[in-house]
Amino acid sequence: MNAFVSLAAVLALLLLAWLGVAGLQLHILFGIVIPYFAVVVFLGGIVYRVMTWANVPVPFRIPTTCGQQKSLPWIGHSKLENPSSSWQVAGRMALEVLFFRSLFRNTKTEVHPDGPKVVYHPAYWLWIGALAFHYGFLTVFVRHFRFFVPPACGYQQAASWCTDSSVVDGLWWALGTLESVDAFLQVGAPPVFVSGIILLAAATYLLLRRFVIPQVRYISLASDYFPLFLIIGIAATGILMRHFVRTDIEAIKALGYGLASFAPLTGGEAWSQFVHHRPGGAFVPGLPDIHWLFFAHLLLVCTLFVYFPFSKLMHLGGVFLSPTRNMANSNRAVRYDVGWSARHPVPAHTYEEYEDEFRDKMKMVDIPVDKE
Amino acid sequence: MARQAKFDEIEYYDHKALSAVDFRPPETGWMDTPVDMRPGTFIYPAKPRHLEYLGFPNPREWNPQDDDWKLPENWKEIIFKGMRERLDEYRSFRVFMDICVRCGACADKCHFFIGSGDPKNMPVLRAELIRSVYRNDFTTAGKILGKLAGAREVTIDVIKEWFYYFYQCTECRRCSVFCPYGIDTAEITMMARELLNLLGLNVNWIIEPVANCFRTGNHLGIQPHGLKDTLEFFADDIEEATGIKVDIPLNKKGAEILFVTPSGDFLADPGTFTCMGYMMLFHELGLDYTWSTYASEGGNFGLFTSHETIKRLNAKIYAEAKRLGVKWILGGECGHMWRVVNQYMDTVNGPADFLEVPRSPITGTVFENARSTKMVHITEFTADLIKHGKLKLDKSQNDHIRVTFHDSCNPARAMGILEEPRYILKHVCNHFYEMPENTIREQTFCCGGGAGLGTDENMEMRLRGGLPRGNAVQHVHERFGVNHLVAMCAIDRATLSTVCEYWAPEVRVAGIHELLANAMVMRGQKKRTLNLRLEPINGEEGDGDE
Amino acid sequence: MNDKIKIVIGLVSFLVLTSSPFWLNIATGTDWARPNEVVEQEVARLRADPGLPCALKQSDKERAQGRPNREMIDKHMALLLEWRDQVVRDGDREVPEWWQDAKGQGRVVRGRRLEKSLSGGCLVCHTKKKPGETEYKFCDACHTYVQIDPYCWDCHVVP
User: Fold this and answer.
1) Considering only A55-59, A86-90, A252-256, which range has the smallest mean pLDDT?
2) pLDDT tens readout for residues A324-353
3) A353 and chain B: CB distance < 8 Å anywhere?
């Protein structure tokens, strides 16, 4: 049921894009208005959510220690699993964020009723799937920057910014290198990007395990299926567009650059994106020349952007703020106090009260007392 | 059989039935599956007089199996307000409510899930029990989409579910080790229990010790003369085993060190033998130390109640250290006590600027890692002694036993004290074997009775939760002939005895300082023929090849 | 709170990185153009010679509206790949219909018989860089604009 609703929602979005663009010709709505809205909600929403967390105190230092503490100098200290300084915490966090260290520990537990026997198998697939998914996504995300930044300098030497273009050229060098590595298979024209395939495969794996593993199916909510269907939809439409349907990439870049330079509707160049003909009479491809599938792709991405800050996808920010991971286990060495104790006075049972109650009994057995 | 066993006895539980864990989730969705409050799986409510003594809300007689739990009229408002306050006070709570992706990595890491197959014992679903209410009351998506977003309104049935499952979590943090975001179910359980406490839903196994501790200084309610009695009794046994009369400094002003240990070690075997071990060690060292009757509890069942209660109970230790004028504090073998000492003590009751940075009077070692808290773990202290050759140890006195070591949850995952106890063990016995690596160190399994669940009316869950640990013990028993499970935690020593009796019947439980004391050659001792349990130690070495 | 400063720094870094295209475009200005001029020149040049065969590939509607060959814009890379496979793997050198003369052979344009080939076909008419030239021509005008780096010339000699 949860899965069905999520799939239906994604299909409805595809249908919406088709109706809106191929049918109602709402190119400006789908190509310009919705993307701006989505980016604003995405960035604003993330700031809002992270600041909501930041505004809540962390009253206690509660790291989950996964290795030997720092104690006597001759006992080997596990600096990354049980950090005692900020730098060690940074190391631990780097392992978590970049390599999913904790997920790497994953095991599968089986209980064999005979004996009984509890058996633990290493279980790396979730870790592999998660790494593939996230790095695939990251690569795809970064690759798309080419649609939003100026073309490499030299393209138009007359442009004033080209006089000092080291930033742009460096960026292009980085993006170009990323692309050529990503396209190392050199299959097809344009070549297949491995990252896209990996993203699609990994997302499909993550979806399938939600169907197949009974426990995971039992806990899965619509909000677990929806982003997976959405991302599968994004990857699928992207691959479809690049390798099967194909559309005018130059016009798409014009749109992307127009959006990212806040000039999608103004200026001669940008205006021509959707009026087809420039004043001079020459033809310039514009928004209507782009296949509707592109707008479907874009709508799914926009949906993801809008959905992101208000969903579990915020683990992107949350992973950095988890007190069990981002704190040093140095409590006994360095006092930690952000005011919890002052905010929470509690009744005490003082020694005087205690002795008053038990003084006779204490004296009876010669336990020293303060007041005779 | 003369009589039928009852649900609070291990004989009641058929091995085969308990071993055949059914991992198939129910046909009904988890929101539509009500709690089955069956005897053996829940804990009796707190008695009203304890709540009254502590000034906790809603003291009354009630029964979890009744329909009417006698909640305050405005209980929904209390829960809502309680959640709001905690969401604004504890970032852990808010972040953990927000970022779980339900990947399921934690699912089969919980001993209660492994032993019961109940999906609501998967840490992720345990958290969802409260997360669903959070979504409903505090998030836009939950308010709009409702059940589709995994949100549900808080009802009496939800509260019953909370009571059942948040007193079916031992706050052991094993799931937190495996969670890619470090989501710590212990934190969530602590919040849920705080909320339940606001409604007067608490269990007697926790609240009675809390009330006792507040009044008498220890969970067991041992009064000062009783404590002296107990320690003198231990001294007699020590004298019988070693021929040495150890002294018992009690509430001694001006002593150098205040020693605090869990009161469980005063009362129940085998913890008592560990307690004797401390007394012998301190006597042998000629340590200038003192026990305290006022701060006679290292443990802190406040941890299982609320952060405020942690502070209330813990306050006595610094207060007593100040009153007695000691230089620093030494703490005994305990599990959750060390979570409190390591993570809360200094923050809630510090700064302990009236104490000195702990320095071993025997070796001169300064415990830099306890520079601020001024409280040292006994195994840190003892490992340092052994390293400096300050103890005369005859390992062969432990040759008749084969030992494995159980890392207790809190020292392992809330402190990381893994090597110190092993170092000691390797110096006091010749036959030491580790359990499989997925069951020790940071991946260690709970005894099934921590966090205030170690009571006999909860026997079914204790045995189920004890399965992974018990099975690992049985494994090293079969493989290496291990017959002693050593743990540095008072709750472990009590509950693992039951777990072992059921799952690894030929293994018994001991403490580190019990083994240390048995191996220690004391000045002026008579020939040792008895261990601290007053059992013969010689001539029993030959059972190694089984 | 010390911790809050760190969070804000992290958040700002994230924002700057994610929205970098916006900042970059503001910083570098937007006075650049799509490759229209190059394309227009090309189109004007080719229109001056109505005998060129490629226009045949255009749909009637496109021709009537003076619009370029949509299918060629979108799919030329696939066509080239298809030709490569046909020529290299199957030895099928039959030129496409719109390049054929009455006998089914490649038409002769500018003194060359069109082949089923990029350099021997398309580039007979379309402008290309001559050795030493840096100015963008018909193909690389768009390719550079969108940052496409075809790997054809990794192996083939630049014609």
Assistant:
1) A252-256
2) 999 999 989 999 999 999 999 999 999 999
3) no
Q: Choose the weakest-confidence range: A177-181, B96-100, B123-127, B456-460.
A: A177-181
> C29 at the A interface (CB within 8 A)?
yes
Q: Report chain B's C-alpha Rg in angstroms.
A: 23
- Which among A117, A140, A158, A88 is positioned nearest to A326, based on CA atoms? A88
Question: Element (H or E) spanning A297, and its range?
Answer: helix A292-307
A75 with B423: Cβ contact below 8 A: yes
Q: Please name the member of C18, C29, C74 whose beta carbon is closest to the beta carbon of A248.
A: C74
The residue among B482, B495, B363 whose CA lies nearest residue B425 is B482
- Does residue B238 have a pLDDT over 90? yes
**B377 CA to centre of own chain:** 15
The alpha carbon of residue B418 and the mean position of all alpha carbons in its chain are separated, in whole angstroms, by 16
Q: Which amino acid is at C11?
A: L
Question: Are the beta carbons of A273 and A261 closer than 8 angstroms?
Answer: no
Contact (CB<8Å) C145/A171: no
Compare all CA atoms of chain A with the CA of C24 and give the residue at the minimum distance: A149
The residues near A196 (Cβ < 8 Å, ≥ 6 apart) are A136, A140, A235, A238, A239, A242
Q: How far off is chain A from C127, nearest CA to CA, in Å?
A: 17
CA distance A120 to A109: 5
Give the model confidence (pLDDT) of A234-260 as tens digits. 999 999 999 999 888 888 888 888 888
Among B506, B321, B516, which Cα is nearest to B426's?
A: B516
Nearest to A210 by CA among A188, A237, A185, A228: A228
Residue A49 has pLDDT above 50, yes or no: yes
User: With bands split at pLDDT 50, 70 and 90, how would you rate the model's confidence at B542?
Assistant: very low
Beta bridge partners of A34: none
Determine contact, residues B189/B32, Cβ cutoff 8 Å. no
For residue C12, with 0-12 CB atoms within 10 Å meaning exposed, 13-18 middle and 19 or more buried, which class applies?
exposed
Q: What is the pLDDT of residues B102-161, one digit of tens each?
A: 999 999 999 999 999 999 999 999 999 999 999 999 998 889 888 888 999 999 999 999
SS3 C42: helix
CB of C104 less than 8 A from some CB of A: no
Q: For A180, name the nearest residue in chain C, comparing CA atoms only.
A: C149
Q: What is the mean pLDDT of residues B182-199?
A: 97
* Cβ atoms of residues A315 and B181 within 8 Å: yes
Q: Is the pLDDT of residue A282 over 60?
A: no
* Cβ proximity of B23 and B117 under 8 Å: yes
A117 interaction partners in chain B (CB closer than 8 Å): 471
- Enumerate residues 6+ apart whose C-beta is below 8 A from B68: B62
* Domains, in order of start, for chain A: 2-247+291-364 (1.20.950.20)
Distance between CA atoms of residues C117 and B484, nearest Å: 82
User: What's the token pair of residue B17?
Assistant: 């039935």
Q: Which residue stretches of chain C have pLDDT < 70?
A: 1-2, 29-33, 50-51, 54-57, 65-66, 131-136, 157-159
pLDDT averaged over every residue in chain A: 88
pLDDT given for residue A152 in this prediction = 63
Residue C15 has a pLDDT of 95
- Which residues of chain A from 277 to 306 reach within 8 Å of chain B, CB to CB? none
Segments making up each domain of chain B, as ranges? 14-202, 211-519
Distance CA B159, CA B139 (A): 20
* 3-class SS letters over B37-91: CCCCCCCCECCHHHHHHHCCCCCCCCCCCCCCCCCCCCHHHHHHHHHHHHHCCCH
State how far the alpha carbon of A230 is from the alpha carbons of A208, B361, C74, in Å. 14, 65, 26
